[in-house]
């Protein structure tokens, strides 16, 4: 493992959990400077100055930092433009020599062994290559310099740092080849190695037969009836967040939304996957802290130059590793306990299992798996649950964070969105039928996922020799498919950097990798496409709709500039600090249509006494 990751300081997935870091509990020295959130667990900041007065010393330091960053960026651009990263294409000498020896009668097998050390591309063109020092791209979110390199070197190039190299893919047809057409020739490579300690052989890192069996067991659990039931859960969880925001609006406190979204989606995924209420919007300790300890460890391991945790005695003497082990134990015990409770429920149930089976009391994925008679070891089941917990948590939180950031700059889009939400939902909880009607809200999420794909790169390793476009590659190549580059490529998008939900027609199909020919892959593609795509789309639409219905959001005065940092998903460096105000809706003139709307509400099980009714005004 060490060999694979030791040269990857800025080129690995880092699972970033800084916004939820309890400030009192963790040592600061394990986090890279400039990548830390400042909020800790105090997510609603409440300072005597309302958090609005920027500290003047701080702002001077930030100005200097900004100038230095611009300088670094300009230097990197100049070096790329000047061909500083370009490696001269090697000549065809090895292939000429091989041909010559072959003509002299040297057997093919011997030539293959002799020339296996040289680029096996023979007479094929050679993949463009960029080389340089890690330092040149280390200072910022790594997918940013990759974008500039893509503009210079094209849809596939090799990036070499010392003895380590990666293929960077930004070409839709090559992405399609790797993810879909020849997916069998690729594994999860580095990703599986980093995540092993937390996800084991769960669905994201697993490859081969284990993956095939587990995918076949898990996909059916996310059937339409289950997703429809989850919409209620999304509504209730978002309502808890609304109550928090309501209090902040009353008190005139600014809120750090990235942290709140992380908690919202943790609460949702816990209930959805194994019927466990983390209640992280009100509770920081115990299991919630353990989850974040483990996530942060995955992040730290991904950037560590030496895998010291592999030294056997280390985990017994390092306080940090002891803490990680304790957190993992707590999570595993909790999961084992939940599995046992669920098994008992299933045993007591009069079970009639069918395709859309769902237990009304416990509609979780775990319950479905056990009821289906899934023949699986407890360890594998735990790995799968843990995988879904992580996969479905950080991603959705990041989508909401960047959506609200984008909206803060586009009041026009917000007004259109609020108009739609008012007319479709009124004051009721969303239902599955509303998902088709909230078309503009869906387009806002589609466009947010284009600009901020979560994760920004997909990682693969070739396990066979293959052809990528016109280039042959050998087995063992580490590959980054840059979804960021695909989604912002000037070859495919007009005004690629602009947030324009209207680019997706309301009456058109929901954009996905197939109808966008792999230029747009918010949920990946091919056999390893996200299993939670529909779940996540509805979850983010429900949260977005319910939040903009009740509140207006603006960047807080004096809030730190929103900058990106690399994680498994894209995080902000210092949180998303916003001012929330209750929305004053225009008065509704009673018409026939309005009464139809309130009939709708009662049909959806919402009465006038329901906490949601009348709260938007
Ligand atoms: C907006 C939220 C989400 C986004 C953007 C997202 C994105 C993705 C992407 C891009 C992949 C493909 C990774 C690859 O090919 O390497 C993936 C895989 C996966 N996602 Fe999601 N995801 C989201 C939410 C969820 C949720 C809610 C769940 C669970 C309920 C989930 C479970 C998974 C699993 C298990 C895989 C691995 C599938 C496999 O390898 O067979 N995701 N996700």
Automatic annotation (TrEMBL):
Q: Whose protein is this, by species?
A: Parasponia andersonii (Sponia andersonii)
Q: What coarse category fits the chief subcellular location reported for this protein?
A: plastid
The record's keywords, sorted A to Z, are: Carotenoid biosynthesis, Chloroplast, Heme, Iron, Metal-binding, Monooxygenase, Oxidoreductase, Plastid, Transit peptide
Question: Where found?
Answer: Plastid, Chloroplast
User: CDD domains annotated for this entry?
Assistant: CYP97 (cd11046)
GO terms for molecular function, please?
beta-carotene 3-hydroxylase activity; heme binding; iron ion binding; oxidoreductase activity, acting on paired donors, with incorporation or reduction of molecular oxygen
Q: Where is this region: Disordered?
A: 596-617
Keyword set includes Iron: yes
Q: Name one GO biological process term.
A: xanthophyll biosynthetic process
Q: Does the keyword Chloroplast apply?
A: yes
- Please state which protein family the record places this protein in: Belongs to the cytochrome P450 family.
Please list the residues that bind heme: 530
Which PANTHER family did the record assign?
CYTOCHROME P450 FAMILY 4, PROTEIN LUTEIN DEFICIENT 5, CHLOROPLASTIC
What this protein needs as a cofactor is: heme
What's any one GO cellular component for it? chloroplast
Top-level taxon: Eukaryota
Q: What is this protein called?
A: Cytochrome P450, E-class, group I
Instruction: Show the taxonomic lineage.
Output: Eukaryota, Viridiplantae, Streptophyta, Embryophyta, Tracheophyta
């Amino acid at each position: 493992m060490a060999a694979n990751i030791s040269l990857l300081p800025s080129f690995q997935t880092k699972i970033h959990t800084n916004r939820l870091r309890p400030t009192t509990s963790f040592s600061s020295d394990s986090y890279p400077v400039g990548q830390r959130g400042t909020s800790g667990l105090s997510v609603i900041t409440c300072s005597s100055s309302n958090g609005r007065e920027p500290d003047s010393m701080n702002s001077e330091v930030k100005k200097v930092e900004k100038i230095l960053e611009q300088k670094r960026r300009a230097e990197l651009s100049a070096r790329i433009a000047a061909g500083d990263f370009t490696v001269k294409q090697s000549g065809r000498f090895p292939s000429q020599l091989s041909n010559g020896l072959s003509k002299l009668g040297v057997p093919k097998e011997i030539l293959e062994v002799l020339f296996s050390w040289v680029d096996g591309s023979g007479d094929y063109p050679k993949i463009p290559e960029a080389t340089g020092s890690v330092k040149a791209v280390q200072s910022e979110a790594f997918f940013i310099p990759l974008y500039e390199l893509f503009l210079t070197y094209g849809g596939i190039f090799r990036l070499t740092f010392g003895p380590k190299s990666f293929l960077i893919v930004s070409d839709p047809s090559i992405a399609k080849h790797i993810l879909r057409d020849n997916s069998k020739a690729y594994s999860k490579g580095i990703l599986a190695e980093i995540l092993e300690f937390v996800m084991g052989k769960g669905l994201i890192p697993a490859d081969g037969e284990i993956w095939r069996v587990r995918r076949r067991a898990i996909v059916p659990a996310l059937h339409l009836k289950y997703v429809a039931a989850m919409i209620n859960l999304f509504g209730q969880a978002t309502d808890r967040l609304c109550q928090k925001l309501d209090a902040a609006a009353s008190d005139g406190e600014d809120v750090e939304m990235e942290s709140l979204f992380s908690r919202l989606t943790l609460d949702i995924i816990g209930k959805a996957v194994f019927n466990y209420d983390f209640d992280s919007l009100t509770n920081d300790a115990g299991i919630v802290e353990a989850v974040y300890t483990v996530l942060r460890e995955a992040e730290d391991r991904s950037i560590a130059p030496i895998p010291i945790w592999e030294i056997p005695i280390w985990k017994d003497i390092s306080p940090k590793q002891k803490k990680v082990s304790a957190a993992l134990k707590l999570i595993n015990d909790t999961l084992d306990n939940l599995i046992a409770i669920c098994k008992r429920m299933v045993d007591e149930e009069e079970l009639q299992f069918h395709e859309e089976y769902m237990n009304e009391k416990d509609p979780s994925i775990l319950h479905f798996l056990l009821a289906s008679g899934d023949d699986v070891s407890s360890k594998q089941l735990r790995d799968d649950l843990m995988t879904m917990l992580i996969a479905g948590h950080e991603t959705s939180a990041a989508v909401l964070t960047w959506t609200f950031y984008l909206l803060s700059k586009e009041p026009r889009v917000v007004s259109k969105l609020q108009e739609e939400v008012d007319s479709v939902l009124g004051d009721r909880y969303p239902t599955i039928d509303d998902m088709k009607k909230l078309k503009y809200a869906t387009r806002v999420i589609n466009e947010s996922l284009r600009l901020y794909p979560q994760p920004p790169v997909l990682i693969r390793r070739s396990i066979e020799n293959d052809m990528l476009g016109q280039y042959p590659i050998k087995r063992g190549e580490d590959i980054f498919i840059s979804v960021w580059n695909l989604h912002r490529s000037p070859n495919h998008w007009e005004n690629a950097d602009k947030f324009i939900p209207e680019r997706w027609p309301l009456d058109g199909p929901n954009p996905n990798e197939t109808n966008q020919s792999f230029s747009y892959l918010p949920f990946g593609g091919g056999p390893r496409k996200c299993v939670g795509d529909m779940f996540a789309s509805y979850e983010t639409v429900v949260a977005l709709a319910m939040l903009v219905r009740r509140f207006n959001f603006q960047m807080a005065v004096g809030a730190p500039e929103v900058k990106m940092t690399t994680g498994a998903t894209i995080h902000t460096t210092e949180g998303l600090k916003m001012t929330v105000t209750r929305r004053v809706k225009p008065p509704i003139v009673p018409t026939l249509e309005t009464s139809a709307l309130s009939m709708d509400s009662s049909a959806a099980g919402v009465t006038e006494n329901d906490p949601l009714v009348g709260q938007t005004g």
